[in-house]
Amino acid sequence: MIDILQYEFMRNALAAAVLVSIACGIVGTYVVVRKIVFISGGISHTAFGGIGLGYLLGINPILTALPFSVLSAVGIGVISKKTKMGEDTAIGVMWPVGMALGILFIHLSPGYAPDLFSYLFGSILTVPRTDLIMMLVLDCFIVGVVALFYREFLAMSFDEEFSTVVGIPAQKLYLLLLCLVGLSVVVLIRVVGVILVIALLTMPAAISRNFTYRIKRLMLFSIVIGMVVTVSGLILSYVFDLPSGATIVLVLGGTLLFSSWITH
Amino acid sequence: MSVVNLKDVSVYEDGVPLLEEVTLSIEEHDFLSIIGPNGAGKTTLLKVILGLITPNAGTVEVFGTTPQKGRTFTGYLPQHISFDANFPISVFDVVSMGRYTKSFASYTKKDEEIVFGALETVGIVTFAHRQIGTLSGGEQQRVFLARALARSPRLLLLDEPTTGIDPEMRKSFYELLVTLKEEMTIVLVTHDVSVISVYVDSVACLNRKLYYHGSAEGALEKLEDVYQCPVEVIAHGVPHRVLRRHNND
Description:
The complex is a heterodimer of chains A (264) and B (249). With 264 residues, chain A is mainly α. Chain A has twelve helices and no strands. Chain A has one domain: ABC transporter involved in vitamin B12 uptake, BtuC (Orthogonal Bundle), CATH 1.10.3470.10. The longest helix of chain A has 39 residues. Chain A is globular. By secondary structure, chain B is an alpha/beta fold. Chain B has one domain: P-loop containing nucleotide triphosphate hydrolases (Rossmann fold). In chain B, helix 4 packs across helix 5. Chain B is globular. The N and C termini of chain B lie far apart (38 Å). At the A-B interface, helix 8 and helix 9 of A face loops of B.
């Protein structure tokens, strides 16, 4: 077992698992308790437009996914709050438009799009070192923002009106939270792909919820569960030669079922 | 000194008037009850005082400043709090939100003492570490009152606070308010007309326009105008009829 660590791709994969778990443990907790799962799904799919743009411009798609993802987060947030369209309609608009842009960009880019499949469904065994550095930077940013605004996020998630009354800019904070979701999507894309991102943003927190009602512990549990599950998924996919993103998601699903069953 | 000063305040939503030319000033240590039928704009009026709604016309002053700045001294108990009963938060943490003043700080030891004090005042200190959803409706209502009190407010705004509370507890709730009146100004929005006679000092009758603002006794004559139907006012919990008969004398 230890000897697989001598491969660089395996060490990178383990690092990716840790980095991914931090983002999904912290942001995923808010996604679940603030009930913005489908907004987050919308943001992650919209980010595919950014991936396509990267192919078109001939640069690392993760770099173009970053602004795309953050802009779509702000876009969905602003449209759903400021217009009469409603949240679910805003999601229904941004989601396919983002994906359609991605498909168009890829169609327009010269040549064949080699690892397109890995951006859609993830591939933890092929995360390059440059992307790991980017994931680390984003993780630090996410942890920093949440540490600074922990009380504000908690109050805003629980009761938006009251938090406004005590002087918390709840709407701006909500947009900031959606931006954190956008950043987490970028952290997660390499590992599970835009289509499966929502699994890692939802399930670790959903599993932890069976064991605690304290939000800090929820984050901590989610991070640990995220790590254990991604690493087991990684090992399973390596040993049995399975697609890693899908394996991780299925291990998560199984863990969720099992934990709900034993705590019920 | 006036705690709240509204002058010719009108609020429209999509062209529909919610409040029309309301002029109202609330004095310090007043216990004012705002009554009126459904859709009279009672909640809107509170939200104007809180600065959550900016009026289309008129001026609002709270503690001689803007409602947004005046909020520092204001405690608020909303009518409906849309929150998730499964939200992972303890009673203590909910009430702590009332102590929030600024970003880049944390709750202090003193905040903690005030939070426990507020929990004690409303009689639920034993539930401090329970998850909010495990409490009954009436207990949750007391948590939110404690949250408003934890602000150490000089103005307490209560929107239909006794909805979902049984009559026995209602009485002790009002008695609690009477003791709080020593320290703060209280504005109570209610449907419960019986409360007027016994506990409050003054009454404002609202039905989009302000029909009456003055002593509780005088309000009863105006009730009919506001509700636009005869109102029988019965004072619960008092052995004798304290209210003057009206209309037929």
